[in-house]
Write a structure and sequence with these properties.
Layout lengths: L2 H7 L12 E7 L2 E6 L3 E6 L13 E7 L2 E7 H4 L12 E7 L2 E7 L1 E7 L5 E2 L13 E7 L2 E6 L1 H4 L2 H4 L12
Parallel strand pairs: 2-11, 5-7
Antiparallel strand pairs: 1-2, 1-8, 3-6, 4-5, 6-7, 9-10, 10-11
Length: 172
């Protein structure tokens, strides 16, 4: 089975990280996630952010990154994980999503990996009670499961529209 066959067999994951592309893997709590490496601009240590009044808790605020106002999302809070602790391993992954730059806060970055088509399984169906639209699939990686995240779907424009209109766009 090649990458095209895998995408045809699971059309809901065609626009997201699939077998054959390189993934940046990161951890949130005890789970591991993967995002398309081509969307990653840089990885930075967690830095203080300017809080935006009345923003949802998962929007930590914004940072000024070389002239661009970048919204920062804490995925641990967005995914409703029990404990959110900031320590020396907490990092910020700066993503370049279409015309927006967005930072996500994660517990740690693992490595860059490539999954074969046999390692990628479709996202499970949980019914209407659980929003899994952003889960592109599941990857079997050695002794652990890797949740493949469609980061663009997860961080949809309407979520970021709550911030200042210029947030996430380069300043000229």
């Amino acid at each position: 089975m090649n990458t095209e066959t895998a995408a045809a067999a699971a059309p809901h994951i065609a626009a997201a990280p699939v077998a054959g592309c390189e993934l940046l893997t990161f951890s949130l709590g005890t789970e591991y996630y993967g995002v398309d490496i081509l969307k990653v601009q840089e990885i930075r240590g967690y830095d203080t952010v300017s809080r935006i009044p009345d923003a949802p808790l998962w929007i930590k605020g914004v940072i000024n990154l070389r002239g661009a106002i970048v919204p920062v999302i804490d995925l641990r809070i967005k995914f409703r994980l029990d404990t959110v602790a900031y320590n020396e391993f907490t990092v910020m992954i700066i993503l370049n999503l279409a015309s927006r730059i967005v930072g996500i806060v994660v517990d740690g970055v693992s490595d860059v990996t490539r999954l074969t088509p046999e390692q990628v399984k479709p996202a499970p169906e949980f019914g209407t009670g659980l929003d899994t639209r952003y889960i592109a699939g599941l990857g079997a990686l050695d002794d652990r499961m890797l949740i493949l995240v469609d980061i663009e779907r997860l961080l949809q424009a309407e979520d970021l529209a709550r911030l200042a209109p210029e947030a996430g766009r380069a300043m000229h």
